[in-house]
Amino acid sequence: MSIFAVRYTYDERAEVRDAVRPEHRAWLAELATAGVLLGSGPFTDGEPGALLVLQSADESALRTVLAQDPFARDGLVAATEVRGWDLVLGPWSTPSS
After folding, report:
1. Contact 49, 42 (CB under 8 A)
2. Which positions fall inside the YCII-related domain (predicted)?
3. pTM score
4. Cα distances (Å, whole numbers) of residue 26 to 22, 29, 74
C-alpha cells in the first residue's frame, strides 16, 4: 500500500458545505474504520480546504475512492492535489525490525 497526501481546495459555497458535511464526515469515518484514511481535517487559515492522508494500492485507485466523497459528488471540491508521501517516522509508520 502506498500513502498519499491529498489537498482539497473547496469552492466558496460554505453554506452548501455545511449542509453536506455530516455525510462527508460519515464517509470519512467509514474510510478510517477500513484503515484507508489515516487522518484528515480542514485547514484553519488561508483559502478553504482540507488535508487528507490515505492509503491506497495506487493513485488511480485512490482517485476512485475520492470520487465517492459527498463533497466531490456535490461539486464542493474546486481542486484536488494528490501527492505520494513517504512516511518515515511517527505513529502512522511501521516500526522497522
Report:
1. yes
2. 6-85
3. 0.89
4. 6, 5, 15
Is the Cα dihedral 8, 10, 14, 18 positive or negative?
Answer: negative
Residues 70, 16 contacting (CB under 8 angstroms): no
Alpha carbon separation from 55 to 18, 25, 39, 45, 92 (Å, rounded): 26, 17, 10, 26, 11
Instruction: Tell which wins on pLDDT, 87 or 56.
Output: 56
What contacts 91, CB < 8 A, 6 or more positions away?
A: none
Percentage, residues of the chain above pLDDT 90:
87
CA distances from residue 93 to 6, 12, 15, 66, 88 in whole angstroms, order as listed: 18, 35, 37, 23, 6
Rg (CA), the chain: 14
